[in-house]
Amino acid sequence: MRLIKGKVVLPEIAQQERSALPSGRGLFGSLALSGLIAAISFGIASSATAGDHAHRTARDIVADKAVSEYLRNSCHVGISIAVVDADHTYFYNYGSTSRDKVERPTPLTIYELASVTKTFTASLAARAVVDGRMTLDGDFRSDLPGDYRNLAWNGQPITLRTLLTHYSGMPRDIPDSDALFADKESPDFNARLFALNQGFGRKQFLAALHDIHLRSAPGDKQAYSNAGYLVIGLGLEHVLGEPMDALMRQYIFQPLGMTSTGFTLKGDELARIVNGYDRYGRVTPRPPENAGAAWGLYASTADMAKYVRWQLDESNPVVRLSHQALTGSGSDGEAMAWNLGGDQRQPLIWHGGGSLGMSSQVVLYPKQHEGYVLLANDACEGTEGALKNLAETMHAAEVKSDP
């Protein structure tokens, strides 16, 4: 490992980072700023941009400039970035793990992945399809642990395809959060959402699932649904015979060497997680336990770099399937959780997330074998999109610098 000021560079030496999922069985699961955070952001971002620029790449320089601009918004606190290319992994860290102290994050710092979790769930579903344990267009109710005849519209059932692409007709959340999201900017939104889910675990979800009614025919309308991904998790658990956390470990975390990723924090991980902040600058609680297969994972950029490298290997049948368009097309569509589009005439695959106090983004350029993971400890307005913009800016600098 070598250290360039503000950036850690790891040569590609770990074979496990390229490992495919094994076959077999196996889910539910800086500048003039104001206030303390401005001072923190300025001090740390400045130290990151200092150094011998003669030995730094165009991407490094653009990253420092773009993140400094990002930190002009005093709602932002800290950000960790991993960049993966064919030969190396690069880490960039700015800002602070907390508003209360100047502590720059590291590649081992842990964040909430929020809805990026859905890509992990989708990868397990792809594994099940490749192994012949599930189908994309069969009646998904047959994969569930019980009789859920209510999960159909005039006899048309939910399918894995419609669940993965948010076309299932399922509500956004179970328990129903529509009234809360109608007033998402309310200062007490997080407290009310957390209270709604308090004590609502797997048993309660299974019972409530019997009582819900689809809001549209599967395949007709797209409506974002965390509940749909929890249903996928239930199906994977039932078909593959293990709980969510065990399946994630067996098929993804352990093969890829992701040692600090999971649905719960333990040991020294509790000391390595950042504080999350809402749009009002207040510390937020951790996700409720029932976030599960929809938005419940924690990880570091060191671990996520390994995940990104795996996702760039489209020779792997699981990865290849998970990136294929299920709706729309490869230039404007949805795959298995992933969004499909383009950037500078190159295919682009991405998925973002936002929790009560953190934001995330994974951006892949498969044809150029380049990927980005960006994790931030705030849930401010526009953070998720700003992270994607940062990845695209850094990628453009790399493309421009290539001979």
UniProtKB/TrEMBL annotation:
Family matches, as InterPro entries: Beta-lactam-related, Beta-lactam/transpept-like, Beta-lactamase-like_AB/R
Gene3D superfamilies assigned to the protein according to its UniProt record, in alphabetical order: DD-peptidase/beta-lactamase superfamily
Pfam family of the protein (one): Beta-lactamase
Domain (Beta-lactamase-related): residue spans on this chain: 64-383
Entry similarity comment: Belongs to the beta-lactamase family.
Protein name: CubicO group peptidase (Beta-lactamase class C family)
